[in-house]
Amino acid sequence: MTTVLISGASVAGPALAYWLHRYGYTPTVVERAPAPRPGGYAVDFRGASMTVLERMGILAKVQEKATHLGEVEYVNAAGKRVASTSSTALSGELEILRGDLVDILYAETSDNTEYVFGDSILSLTEDETGVDVVFESGRKRRFDLVIGADGLHSAVRRLAFGPESSYLHDLGYYVSVSTVANHMDLDYAGRLYNEPGKTIGAYSSRQNTEAKALFYFSSGKLDYDRRDIPAQKELVAAQFAGIGWEAPRLIEGMRNAPDFYFDSVSQIKMDRYSRGRIALVGDAGYCASPLSGMGTSLAIVGAYVLAGELHLAGGDHVRAFEAYDVRMRDFVAACQKQGVEGARWFIPATKSFLKLRNLMFRMLPYMPWRNMIDEMSLKVGNAIELRTYEDLQPLRAVPPR
Ligand SMILES: Cc1cc2nc3c(=O)[nH]c(=O)nc-3n(C[C@H](O)[C@H](O)[C@H](O)COP(=O)(O)OP(=O)(O)OC[C@H]3O[C@@H](n4cnc5c(N)ncnc54)[C@H](O)[C@@H]3O)c2cc1C
């Protein structure tokens, strides 16, 4: 049986483990966190990823946990509505909290996948027949293949492909999300306020019992300690100091939140998603940024394609990784383009563009092209043709090990 070590137990990792097990491989997932990571922001699915959820047999489970977020409105400093967007524009065809999705994927795979929590890969040494792995815990093991599904700051990418700086492209923004009280009484809805280069607001979650506070701001590269959460909170607070509307209450909520996410809005661009016996999937290989609305779809579809191509190539990883690369590339390009465009509209840089955007959003429902935004994002979600790997015969048997 071919053994595959997957680094990262969020979306791409468990989804890959699911498909690998189904094709007769033996997956092991190592996750740095001590347990499946709960909570988090809302993530959504569009187009081809909906088909993959269906083929995994988990579409109904994801639908059961859907956020059902409706309209998102934009307000002025006085809180008066100035524009809005449809739920599909920001929440896709199906939206779920990332933690709920992770729970579903973990439950679906934990019987057939070895999960190792609280550990991480320290070194990878590849030879002709496998990869020797040393873990931070000191343990040493050997696997046939290693896959990095460990996100934007992937350790596997750093170890196998070189420094993050060679692949990470900042889009010029930072993002912070945390769970706060739903003090605006948002009813399955979101409310956002903009100033040039800044977007602040919240959307309700968990049946309106709480809200996720969002802070996006444009900035050149910031120098900060990734482990110092209180300092990061103050950094975000300083960016939004003096902004009226609900900002003071959202900042206070963020300061006291049980969870806190802060990072640059960045993309990962690579010429190849594999090297030898090591490959990358999801954000680790082709992060499109939170503002693409396509990161989760990319992770789910990428896992499906990678496992499917391995199955089809009868375990020949060279042929499979090559095919995975070719099949994903245009899809990744379309999603990353949407990430750049999305940022421009979500965080308008100037007062005049902000006014223009709000005017366009106000007029859109009366225009013949009123469904344009929904259609465009669905088109990106479908910018890949999915093969039905299970119906395809492997090219040759998996070689005995
Ligand atoms: C604020 C925000 C909003 C977003 N909104 C959306 C949205 O609306 N729609 C959408 O589709 N996408 C959205 N995304 C993007 C989406 O969350 C990601 O694209 C998706 O989670 C990628 O999944 P992944 O499994 O590839 O990586 P991740 O979800 O980043 O998971 C990586 C995993 O690897 C683990 N890990 C990291 N380093 C190591 C290590 N050294 N060793 C072991 N484990 C490690 C991490 O703990 C984590 O569990 C958003 C992202 C953010 C930050």
Describe this protein's structure:
It is a single chain. This protein has helices at residues 12-22, 48-56, 59-64, 87-91, 98-109, 155-161, 229-239, 247-255, 283-286, 295-312, 317-346, 351-363, 372-381, and strands at 3-7, 26-31, 42-45, 72-75, 81-85, 94-97, 114-117, 121-126, 131-135, 140-143, 145-148, 168-180, 190-195, 198-205, 210-218, 261-268, 274-275, 278-280. The protein is of the alpha/beta class and 401 residues long. The chain has a single domain, classed as FAD/NAD(P)-binding domain, CATH 3.50.50.60. The strands form four sheets. It has a seven-stranded mixed beta sheet, with helices on both faces. A six-stranded mixed beta sheet has the order 7-2-1-11-18-17, sandwiched between helices. β4 (72-75) and β5 form a beta hairpin. α1 (12-22) runs parallel beside α10 and α10 (295-312) packs antiparallel against α11 (317-346). The N and C termini lie close together (7 Å). 47% of the residues are buried. Residues 397-401 have low confidence and may be disordered. Residues 7-13, 30-33, 37, 41-44, 98, 120, 149-151, 155, 175, 177, 261, 282-284, 290, 293-297, 299 line the site of flavin-adenine dinucleotide.
